[in-house]
């Protein structure tokens, strides 16, 4: 758009703007040529037409209506930003505080399906983070150390319920199971009959056809040597076992929003 001073011989002031002049001082007023008015007219017509309106000589509100349509209505989806490409979209969202995971509070851990976290997120791997660079994250983790969730399950804090009493938030707990105990002893004196059936099932097994002989020193004088049978408990005969207790699971990469 041109100023009145851009048009030659219009007597605009030194700033290229209008002046009323000063007759007594010999300063003439600015001339108003058709070229300048046509410039203004074309500018306004462009606004109306880009707003999707058809010029109406009987409607003096079309410029306002066009501006509302272009900038204020919710139907405007900012398609020009989308057309500008991924970099423009990312930068716009960042400027508006609407980056990836912006609806998630800083400090919340989430499972992530790849080894590399998105921008603005860190791995929950027990690492030290910069509290100056990530002040909001430091409010959640004042120690400046992220929880190490590699290979771990998250458990809800007891908070006075009494199910997992005595725990602090972010405290670590080792694996454990409820105790399993019991005992069986049998003796079959001086006979070849079975004390325990050899057809043991599930977690149990028997040792030997008749069991092991008791040592002669353990047998009373004058009593025929008897037989001891042994019964063993082995959970691996019935269920999958490992060096830890765990449910079925899928491995995700735990990450935390840092900014």
TrEMBL record:
Domain of life: Bacteria
Region (Disordered): 1-23
Matches recorded under InterPro entries: Phage_tail_collar_dom, Phage_tail_collar_dom_sf, Phage_Tail_Fiber_Structural
Coiled-coil regions, chain positions: none
Gene3D superfamilies: Phage tail collar domain
Sequence ranges assigned to domain Phage tail collar in this UniProt record: 107-154
Pfam family, one: Collar
Protein name: Tail collar domain protein
């Amino acid at each position: 758009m041109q100023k009145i001073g851009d048009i030659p011989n219009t007597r605009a002031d030194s700033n290229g703007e209008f002046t009323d002049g000063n007759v007594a001082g010999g300063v003439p007023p600015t001339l108003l040529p058709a070229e300048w008015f046509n410039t203004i007219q074309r500018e306004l017509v462009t606004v109306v037409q880009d707003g999707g309106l058809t010029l109406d000589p009987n409607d003096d509100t079309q410029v306002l209506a066009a501006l509302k349509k272009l900038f204020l209505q919710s139907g405007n989806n900012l398609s020009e930003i989308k057309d500008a490409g991924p970099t423009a979209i990312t930068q716009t969202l960042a400027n508006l505080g609407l980056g990836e995971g912006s609806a998630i509070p800083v400090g919340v851990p989430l499972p992530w399906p790849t080894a590399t976290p998105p921008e603005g997120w860190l791995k929950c791997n027990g690492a030290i983070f910069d509290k100056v660079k990530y002040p909001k994250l430091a409010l959640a983790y004042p120690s400046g150390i992220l929880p190490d969730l590699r290979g771990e399950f998250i458990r809800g804090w007891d908070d006075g319920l009494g199910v997992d009493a005595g725990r602090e938030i972010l405290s670590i707990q080792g694996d454990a199971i409820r105790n399993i105990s019991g005992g069986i002893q049998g003796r079959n004196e001086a006979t070849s009959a079975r004390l325990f059936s050899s057809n043991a099932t599930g977690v149990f097994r028997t040792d030997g056809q008749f069991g092991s002989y008791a040592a002669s020193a353990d047998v009373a004088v004058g009593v025929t040597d008897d037989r001891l049978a042994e019964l063993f408990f082995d959970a691996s005969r019935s269920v999958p076992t490992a060096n830890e207790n765990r449910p079925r699971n899928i491995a995700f990469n735990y990450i935390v929003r840092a900014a």
